[in-house]
Amino acid sequence: MKKTLKSVDYGLEKIFDGAQDFLPLLGTDFVEFYVGNAKQAAHFYKTAFGFQSLAYKGLETGSKDEVSYVLKQGKIRLVLTTPLNSKSPINDHLRKHGDGVKVIALWVEDAHKAYEETTKRGAKSYFEPRIHRDEHGEIVTSGIYTYGETVHVFVERKNYNGVFFPGYIPWESDYNPPNAGLKFIDHMVGNVGWGEMDVWVKWYEEVMGFVNFLSFDDKQIHTEYSALMSKVMSNGNGRIKFPINEPAKAEKRSQIEEYLDFYEDCGVQHLAVATDDIIATVKHLRSNGVEFLPPPPQAYYDAIPERLGEHMSIMKEDISALQELSILVDADEEGYLLQIFTKPVEDRPTLFFEIIQRMGAKGFGAGNFKALFESIEREQANRGTL
Ligand code: FE2
User: Fold this and answer.
1) Binning pLDDT at 50, 70 and 90, where does residue 20 land?
2) What is the C-alpha end-to-end distance of the chain, expressed in Å?
3) How confident is the model over 329-337, as a mean pLDDT?
4) pLDDT of 9 strictly over 50
5) For residues 343 and 345, what is the distance between their CA atoms, to the nearest angstrom?
6) Rounded to the nearest whole angstrom, what is the distance from the C-alpha of residue 129 to the centroid of ligand 1?
7) Rounded-to-integer distance, Cα 307 and Cα 45, Å
8) Could you tell me the pLDDT band of residue 19, with boundaries at 50, 70 and 90?
9) Ligand 1 mean position to 86 CA, how many Å?
10) Contacts of range 126-131, beta carbons closer than 8 Å, 24 or more positions apart
11) Coil, strand, or helix at residue 341?
């Protein structure tokens, strides 16, 4: 059935008419990273990003091959997993990609149906529906592959009231640094290879029932040296948004190519997390040692009143406060947004985080792309990878 794009609402309202959403998604359930040392990574996400201890599985709980720490902040759940011996297949993932996102888990009403609907539309199976039980009830999961070795796991948890998942115990810690005001995942971006963006756009449309509601070509996203293309995919209720990036031909190597070279595959480029007060959040993160991209030049901040136009009258933040923290500003017809990007959070220049505060705007900061990419290029030049 043909879907017609109507309006994008990030609440419950459908973004398209005339179609049954065959894959209703309630939200992001968790994001799982495969990492070299989950114990230390967990400390980093608590100390630097203000995540809280939630759940644990490892040798003490009978998990002999892998250990996982679950962290929470607002509605965001991160799972950090490390293999406990050389036999675990997780080692292959780590050897090839380094630390990175393996699982984007999606919260569903019915994990059997999600599996059936997506695999019959061409999704490659990661695993068939499974039931996990403990004294707190049961969770049903199933999984499919998306780009690269990244997977979507469907999580049905309506009959479960434990802390996270069967097999995990609550993780109680004496070390509980304050949170940084991060609320939920706004969007998650995938980098794919040359000529593959439209393949994955079609895959999300056909297999997942998503719609492409924003597109940027290399004429819009370019600097003097490098370029990329991006299309934003959204599910029916707008709760899940996956922009997909592809490199574009230009004089020098784009950040997407750098990512693909170092991740050695397609994969998740960044997680954008929402805050209600970006100034407080960024101050907090900076004081915890989180590293952000260097600031754009003075001219960028001088041009803000003109770029924001009528939205200047509703803007609550002081431009000098934003500039002091290197926060970027963009606007669309419906409002403005504030955003900032961290440096990669591991030694390979691959995954990073975005902090975003939406003040009505529903875009992705297109007006900042040039300033942002010039900033990234300065970093690439330092790494010798431009
Ligand atoms: Fe983003």
Assistant:
1) low
2) 44
3) 91
4) no
5) 6
6) 32
7) 35
8) low
9) 35
10) 126/151, 126/152, 126/153
11) strand
Write the single-letter amino acid at 54.
L
Give residue 114 CA to ligand 1 midpoint distance, Å.
26
Number of helical (H) and strand (E) elements in the chain, helices listed first: 10, 19
- Beta strands 151-156 and 137-145 are antiparallel
The residues whose Cβ lies within 5 A of ligand 1, an ion, are 272, 354
**In this predicted structure, what is the pLDDT of residue 332?**
87
DSSP 8-state code for residue 342: B
Average pLDDT, the chain: 91
| The pLDDT of residue 18 is above 60 | no
| Distance from the alpha carbon of residue 175 to the mean position of ligand 1, in angstroms | 31
Q: How far is the CA of 282 from the centre of ligand 1 (A)?
A: 16
Distance (Å) from CA 315 to ligand 1 centroid: 21
Average pLDDT over residues 318-343: 94
Average pLDDT over residues 258-274: 97
Q: Is the separation of the CB atoms in 108 and 139 below 8 Å?
A: no
C-alpha atoms less than 13 angstroms from C-alpha of 154 in its C-beta half-sphere: 30
Q: How far apart are CA 192 and CA 244, in angstroms?
A: 7
Strands of 59-173, DSSP E: 66-73, 76-83, 100-108, 125-134, 137-145, 151-156, 169-170
Place of tokens 């004496």: 174
Tell me phi and psi for residue 194, to 5 degrees: -55, 130
Spacing, Cα 1 to ligand 1 middle (Å): 30
Domains of the chain by range and CATH? 25-170 (3.10.180.10), 181-383 (3.10.180.10)
Taking the centre of ligand 1 as the mean of its atom positions, its distance from the CA of residue 342, in whole angstroms, is 11
Q: What is the pLDDT of residues 118-146, one digit of tens each?
A: 999 999 999 999 999 999 999 999 999 99
pTM of the complete model: 0.93
CA of 213 to the centre of ligand 1 (A): 15
Vertex 274: Cα angle to 386 and 172 (nearest 5): 105
Buried b (16+ CB within 10 A) or exposed e, 141-169: bbbbebbbbbbbbbbbbeebebebbbbbe
Give per-residue pLDDT as tens, 274-312.
999 999 999 999 999 999 998 888 888 988 998 888 888
Give the C-alpha separation, 123 to 145, whole Å: 7
